[in-house]
Amino acid sequence: VQLQASGGGLVQAGGSLRLSCAVSGRSFSRYVMSWFRQAPGKEREFVAAIGWIGGTGHYADVVKGRFTISRDVAKNTGYLQMSSLKPEDTAIYYCAAHIGGDLTSTSSYDSWGQGTLVTVSS
Question: What pLDDT sits at residue 79?
């Protein structure tokens, strides 16, 4: 399966941005799609995950209440709606396909999009 993230950009603190993740290749029906992010000099960290069938979202505490993960099965596209953005949300955001195990661990994913840069100015 291939994933391609898009939608990043520069936004002021308190603003909003929506990221998209286009999925292609094998059927995604059995996957969980997740978003991770990596800030400069830091490790890649889990942001949110959603089951492709069922659509229940799971979130890291640092984004809970501000970010919303969703997907459009017909369009084979996942989304991350980000609101009340903070400068500390600045990072490259990646979407990934979960293959099993700990949702928050990068080793549980076998396919990654190329990443899209989100910059939040203060």
Answer: 96
